[in-house]
């Protein structure tokens, strides 16, 4: 129940930001998008997902997120009402929810890989948005585009600190599944 | 080894052995092939054969990428093998690593020999996009994507290693031995291999991240030329990545010495505070020293030159002061019986140490201004690769297939070892001599007055190639013998 | 095995979706999408009345020949001035090749850009009216034109505007049929030549 309320809150926050997103891409991409994804993931956390659907679910989330990372999708969400509605539907239901539902099945190496991928994609976007010789979004000023690029970089730095520091101090959440799939270990036990 | 170790030499075969043996075979064959490429280049520079300069640069690119790749592959195999003595590593991850690595190699070879990419292994921005018509943009993209695949493979490899170390030794700080070093907590001090593994995975992951970032930027630049990267920034990222990555190969391979030498001397290699401190210094130095690749870039701030020069010197201390010195101490008076594996491993450490000396010389700003683009620099890195990493890799390979009944150097082994040392030393000395006489590097065609050196080098290179051929054949024969 | 099959199928579908969302890997930005889509599906341009810098009114676009245009506003301190220079170079490039194509710099700010402003912009960039002229539509036609040509204009906080700039091509049938980088002279020339 609490999760549903929290998801509702996150969704309302995202809706209340809508009047501001046309002015400021940082609010659009780094506040409204995460709020929508968070709303979906709060719903998806308790989902009981069958094991064989993990892969497709993860792919759905990653593909949807990839499409929303295209600069043209940002423009479309501002200029085209269909895309605007699609934003409020797909970010929670096709990114946040499936990601959270699949996460408990994901092994620790794949988790680490996805985290590393997220950081490198953010840095890559940061590079694109700060270095692009033209405006990437027709709806945003070039200064705001560069601000968004820096925002990607700051977010990447924050994620690095958040995800890496525990590895140094030993509080890592290891996944039980890792050992079940462990080929080498089976071999040892057989011996 | 402590009682909690997953595997010890007495408790049965290493679960990763088959995979590692296969990798060493692959690495050995590629080393040999790349040496042949190197020989062809030297012979062409000596004007003993005529080689199309375009082909020369394809070979140069393949030689660089192939050597760095097989050094990384063999180093990774060695580290994986010995880490598996202390950790419960999953073969599936290693197989994924190997698969991605090979896929990357296929793309790289395709981009070079089908696409005609000849922009050298360092893919220095914006060179991949400025082929002068020799290769199309797709060849440059393919080369970069090949590297990215290899980077992804290594990321998986280090993630598995890092996660297992962090859960076994209470975080990476435990794996690095820093709890013992800084907090004097002497419970569960990691063995040398784990200290090395932790250090390498920390700095090489950072290196690969920077490499991947600049590769992605280069790919965008190739596809959409109007996206320009600041070339100096790109150069910094590339040399940071390149320096860290090639150094990591040898820091991974040296674990073979830590783990194999005790079998011969009966004295375990211990994780002392000095040892752990040296590795802590390596983690810092290996990342800070790359500035010595940019001493000729006048736009770099002056402090980077100072750091580059100072750290070039300082890097030698943990290396020569600790590893080479410790090796001497462990060997001295142990009554060690020299056979081929231990001879090659010892050669590897000595060559590594010696190879850093020309680097320190070239790391001096005033010297670098004169020597950077001469053959002095290949002289430096061929010393610590040919007589260092490669020697360690073949030493490890020979140890994998050793015949336990034989404890001495057979006459063939002695001949091969001497030929390898003689040919290798001669080869690198000619490079250094050429560098000191201002012969430039990376030139496909040499003036007549430079050709004597190239011809001499060709002779030495031929000896090395033949010795390496015997080492590879001997390894294959050893594999066949043991599988019977 | 089932899982692998499922995941691979999903990945294939995902690639198809991304392929679709980027017009076949050709456009990641809205401007890129405009250029790709317009080239494939030209859009009919309904006639509007334009006032050119010589003060005359004309129904535009005239059919039967290709027309080049770009959208500007004359008080623009930056990109329109650069693109004005590019447009002048384009004119020289085309006339050198013997191509006499009508070229229009159309203001999307007709309230500020009255006749004198159009004339001084034309003077500054050497637009003599033939073949290149500066023009403005009627105020209530601006929104429709911008929409049709997929130009997004946003205020820049300094009293001016930022907008996606390109050289736009109208084909002899009176259809908006291409958008090009302002310095892609060779591409524009071959597009025009293909229409003659």
Following the backbone from N to C, one meets helices and strands of chain A in this order, namely HHHHHHHHH
Beta-strand segment tally of chain B: 0
Q: What is the global morphology of chain B?
A: globular
Terminus-to-terminus distance of chain A: 49 Å
- Distance from N terminus to C terminus of chain B (CA atoms, Å) equals 31 Å
**Averaged pLDDT of chain A:** 86
Structural class of chain A: mainly alpha
Number of helices of chain A: 9
Strand content of chain B is: under 5%
The low-confidence parts of chain B are 1-5
Count of the domains of chain B: 1
- So what's the overall shape of chain A? globular
Count of helix runs of chain B: 16
User: What is the CATH domain class of chain B?
Assistant: Mainly Alpha
What is the radius of gyration of chain A? Answer: 19 Å
Instruction: Tell me roughly what share of residues is in helical segments of chain B.
Output: over 70%
Task: Give the secondary structure arrangement, pairings included.
The complex is a heterotrimer of chains A (191), B (484) and C (196).
Chain A: H1 2-21, H2 25-44, H3 54-69, H4 71-79, H5 81-103, H6 108-131, H7 142-169, H8 176-180, H9 183-190
Helix pairs in contact in A: 1-2, 2-5, 2-7, 3-5, 4-5, 6-7
Chain B: H1 17-45, H2 53-83, H3 91-114, H4 137-168, H5 172-176, H6 178-183, H7 192-223, H8 231-253, H9 255-265, H10 273-288, H11 302-331, H12 340-362, H13 365-371, H14 376-400, H15 411-436, H16 451-483
Helix pairs in contact in B: 1-2, 1-14, 1-16, 2-3, 2-8, 2-14, 3-4, 4-7, 7-8, 7-9, 7-10, 9-12, 10-11, 11-12, 12-14, 12-15, 14-15, 15-16
Chain C: H1 2-21, H2 30-40, E1 43-44, E2 48-52, E3 57-60, E4 67-72, H3 79-96, E5 103-107, H4 115-125, E6 132-137, H5 142-148, E7 153-155, E8 161-163, E9 167-170, E10 175-180, H6 185-195
Parallel strand pairs in C: 4-5, 5-6
Antiparallel strand pairs in C: 1-10, 2-3, 2-6, 4-9, 7-8, 9-10
Description of the molecule:
The complex is a heterotrimer of chains A (191), B (484) and C (196). Chain A is mainly alpha-helical and 191 residues long. Chain A has one domain. Chain A is built from nine helices and no strands. Chain A has helices spanning 2-21, 25-44, 54-69, 71-79, 81-103, 108-131, 142-169, 176-180, 183-190. The relative contact order of chain A is 0.11. Chain B is mostly helical and 484 residues long. Chain B has one domain (17-483): Cytochrome c oxidase-like, subunit I domain (Cytochrome C Oxidase, Chain A, Up-down Bundle). Chain B is 73% helix and 0% strand. Chain B has 16 helices and no strands. The longest helix of chain B has 33 residues, at 451-483. Chain B is globular, with a radius of gyration of 22 Å. Chain B starts with 16 loop residues before the first helix and ends with a helix. Chain C is of the alpha+beta class and 196 residues long. Chain C has two domains: 1-29; 42-195, 3-Layer(aba) Sandwich (Glutaredoxin), CATH 3.40.30.10. An eight-stranded mixed β-sheet of chain C has the order 1-10-9-4-5-6-2-3. Chains in contact: A-B, A-C. Chain A binds chain B through residues 108-109, 112-113, 116, 119-120, 123-124, 127-128, 131-134, 166-172, 174, 178-179, 181-185, 187-188, 191, and chain B through 6-7, 12, 15-16, 84, 88-93, 152, 155-156, 159-160, 162-163, 166-167, 169-174, 209, 212-213, 216-217, 220, 226-230. Chain C: Keywords: Copper, Disulfide bond, Metal-binding, Signal. Chain C: It comes from Parasedimentitalea huanghaiensis. Chain C: Belongs to the SCO1/2 family. Chain C: Cu cation binds at residues 76, 80, 163. Chain C: Pfam families: SCO1-SenC.
């Amino acid at each position: 129940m609490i999760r549903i309320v929290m998801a509702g809150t996150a969704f309302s926050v995202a809706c209340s930001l809508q009047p501001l997103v046309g002015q400021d891409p940082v609010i659009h991409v780094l506040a409204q998008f995460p709020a929508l994804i968070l709303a979906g993931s709060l719903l998806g956390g308790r989902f009981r997902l069958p094991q064989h659907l993990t892969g497709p679910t993860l792919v759905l989330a990653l593909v949807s997120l990839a499409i929303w990372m295209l600069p043209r999708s940002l423009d479309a969400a501002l200029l085209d009402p269909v895309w605007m509605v699609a934003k409020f539907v797909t970010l929670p239901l096709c990114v946040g929810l499936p990601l959270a539902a699949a996460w408990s099945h994901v092994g620790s190496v794949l988790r680490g890989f996805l985290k590393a991928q997220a950081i490198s994609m953010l840095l890559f976007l940061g590079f694109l948005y700060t270095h692009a010789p033209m405006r990437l979004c027709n709806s945003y000023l070039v200064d705001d585009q560069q601000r968004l690029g820096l925002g990607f970089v700051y977010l990447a730095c924050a994620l690095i600190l958040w995800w890496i520091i525990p590895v140094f101090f030993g509080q890592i959440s290891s996944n039980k599944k890792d050992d079940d799939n462990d080929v080498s270990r089976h071999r040892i036990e057989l011996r | 080894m402590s009682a909690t170790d997953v595997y010890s030499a007495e408790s049965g075969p290493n679960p990763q052995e088959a995979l590692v043996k296969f990798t060493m075979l692959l690495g050995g064959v590629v080393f040999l092939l790349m040496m042949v490429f190197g020989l062809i280049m030297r012979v062409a520079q000596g004007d003993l054969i005529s080689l199309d300069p375009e082909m020369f640069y394809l070979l140069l690119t393949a030689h660089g990428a192939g050597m760095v790749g097989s050094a990384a592959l063999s180093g990774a195999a060695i580290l994986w093998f010995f880490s598996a003595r202390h950790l419960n590593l999953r073969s599936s991850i290693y197989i994924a690593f190997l698969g991605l690595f090979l896929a990357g190699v296929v793309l790289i070879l395709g981009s070079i020999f089908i696409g005609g990419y000849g922009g050298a292994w360092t893919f220095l921005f914006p060179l991949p996009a400025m082929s002068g018509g020799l290769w199309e943009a797709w060849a440059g993209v393919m080369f970069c994507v090949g590297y990215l695949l290899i980077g992804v493979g290594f990321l998986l490899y280090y993630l598995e290693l890092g996660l297992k170390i962090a859960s076994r030794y209470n975080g990476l700080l435990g794996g690095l031995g820093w709890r013992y070093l800084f907090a004097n907590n002497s419970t569960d001090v990691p063995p040398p291999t784990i200290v090395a593994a932790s250090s390498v995975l920390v700095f090489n992951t950072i290196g690969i991240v920077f490499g991947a970032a600049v590769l992605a930027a280069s790919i965008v630049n190739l596809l959409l030329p109007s996206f320009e990267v600041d070339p100096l920034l790109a150069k910094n990222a590339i040399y940071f990545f390149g320096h860290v990555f090639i150094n990591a190969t040898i820091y991974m391979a040296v674990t073979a010495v830590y783990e194999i030498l005790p079998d011969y001397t009966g004295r375990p290699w211990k994780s002392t505070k000095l040892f752990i401190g040296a590795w802590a210094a390596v983690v810092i130095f290996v990342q800070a020293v790359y500035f010595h690749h940019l001493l000729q870039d006048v736009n770099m701030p002056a402090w980077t030159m100072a750091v580059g020069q100072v750290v070039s010197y300082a890097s030698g201390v943990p290396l020569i002061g600790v590893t080479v010195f410790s090796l001497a101490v462990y060997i001295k008076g142990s009554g060690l019986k020299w056979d081929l594996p231990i001879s090659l491993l010892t050669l590897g450490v000595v060559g590594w140490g010696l190879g850093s000396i020309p680097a320190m010389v070239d790391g001096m700003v005033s010297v670098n201004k004169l020597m950077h683009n001469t053959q002095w620099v290949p002289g430096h890195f061929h010393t610590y690769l040919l007589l260092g990493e490669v020697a360690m890799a073949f030493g490890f390979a020979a140890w994998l297939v050793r015949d336990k009944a034989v404890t001495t150097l057979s006459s063939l082994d002695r001949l091969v070892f001497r030929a390898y040392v003689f040919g290798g030393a001669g080869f690198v000395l000619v490079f250094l001599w050429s560098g000191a006489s201002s012969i430039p590097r990376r030139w496909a065609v040499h003036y007549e007055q430079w050709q004597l050196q190239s011809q001499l080098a060709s002779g030495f290179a031929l000896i090395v190639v033949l010795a390496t051929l015997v080492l590879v054949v001997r390894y294959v024969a050893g594999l066949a013998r043991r599988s019977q | 095995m089932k899982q692998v099959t499922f995941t691979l199928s999903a990945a294939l579908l995902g690639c198809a979706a991304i392929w679709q969302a980027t017009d076949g890997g050709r456009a990641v930005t809205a401007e890129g999408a405009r250029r790709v889509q317009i080239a494939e599906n030209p859009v009919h341009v309904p006639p509007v009345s334009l006032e050119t810098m010589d003060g005359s009114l004309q129904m535009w676009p005239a059919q039967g020949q290709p027309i080049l245009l770009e959208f500007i506003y004359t008080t623009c301190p930056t990109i329109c001035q650069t693109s004005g220079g590019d447009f002048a170079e384009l004119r020289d490039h085309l006339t050198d090749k013997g191509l006499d194509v009508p070229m229009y710099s159309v203001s999307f700010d007709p309230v500020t850009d009255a006749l004198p402003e159009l004339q001084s912009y034309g003077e500054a960039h050497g637009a003599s009216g033939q073949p290149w002229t500066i023009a403005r539509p009627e105020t209530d036609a601006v929104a429709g034109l911008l929409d049709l040509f997929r130009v997004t204009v946003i205020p820049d906080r300094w009293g001016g505007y930022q907008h996606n700039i390109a050289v736009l091509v109208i084909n002899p049938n009176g259809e908006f049929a291409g958008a090009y980088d302002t310095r892609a002279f060779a591409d524009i020339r071959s597009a025009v030549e293909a229409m003659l």
